[in-house]
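Hello K.,

You asked for the raw outputs rather than the summary table, so here they are, unedited. I folded two proteins back to back in the same session to keep the settings identical. This is the first:
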Amino acid sequence: MEILIFSILAIVAVVCSIMVICQKNPVASALFLIATMVSLAMLFLLLNAPFLAVIQIIVYAGAIMVLFLFVIMLLNLRRDEFGPEKRRAQRFFGILFVFLLLIGMVTVIEVGIFGSKSTETVSEATAPAGVEPLAQLLFTKYLFPFELASVLLLVAIVGAVVMAKRRL
């Protein structure tokens, strides 16, 4: 039963992430991104990581996506501003990437159903559980990438506001 739920959630996540790329409307693309993040949060629940699932919903699907939608609405992009489609090579490499991603997904599902060839498994006694190990890693080993991501988000917001102000 767990494999079936995982498979359904994985398919939903992959399909929604492909729809993020394929949508011409940026608002619809952002909504598909929210659906992708919700399905990823449900996958975290399957991994017995409820804290990460809640953070995925609150931070990414909630705060960050509201911010993205705000920036999209602030820019007020019109269809004529996109210009003609000139990216045929980009479309080819995108389709190639999706094909490789699907091969990887089928391989992962096959290993999950039929078992792995290696005998090494992570026992629940050695796996870190709870918020404390996550916070310890986040604020020690991964502090610089964490702060870098927040600075990049801030720069993106300021850049979007500056671009919108120039047009008015």
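The second followed immediately with the same parameters:
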Amino acid sequence: MAQVQTLSSLPFAPQSRGVSDLSNGLSAIPRGGITEILGHSTSGRTSVAQSMLATATRGGEVCAVIDTSDAFDPASALKCGADLGKLLWIQCGHRLETALKSADMILHSGGFGLVLLDLCDVAPVAFERVPTSCWYRFRLAVEPTPTVLLILARQSIARSCAVRQFDLQHELVHWGGTAPFQTIDRLDTRATTRKPPQGSDVKLHVFANTFTAI
């Protein structure tokens, strides 16, 4: 069973059109559709997602985080600027089936501006057992709504059901401090638009909890 955490009381605010893109420089993300942010660890996908959560909650929208692998860090989201009072956090205990059922319930309940489905740490073989109809069901549920369904994963999961796909790849690591006590100050990451194919690449500076377009 999923563990639902209400980080504060959840006022279901009226929906606005406040979440129009990932950040300055990235193409607009459409409402009523599935968008995939793809990439391996250290590619900047978590920072992108946290920035979107911050943008949505600051705009007065209620968001949901479906945390498949219990990796979500509320402190980092708060540091990024997210309003935890408008955030529903569902911990799924590394159970993909629980995450998918939770997403289905949330999408059909309505009232959320952004639904984040984090599948980053799920083994690719696990998706082979997920029927294609699952993603079509999600697409049909979100289409008539002002909700953004954002999926984080290592590879495309929703495939043809996604209206936008961004592939993140880090290009350069900037280290701070002196050896042997060095930390990562910044990653230079390239965001490639995979869908639609005519989209242009965007280069990003990814910091600990946020990112900026170059």
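Strands lie at 3-6, 33-38, 63-67, 87-91, 114-118, 148-153, 162-178, 181-195, 202-206, 211-213.

Happy to rerun anything if the numbers look odd on your end.

Regards,
P.
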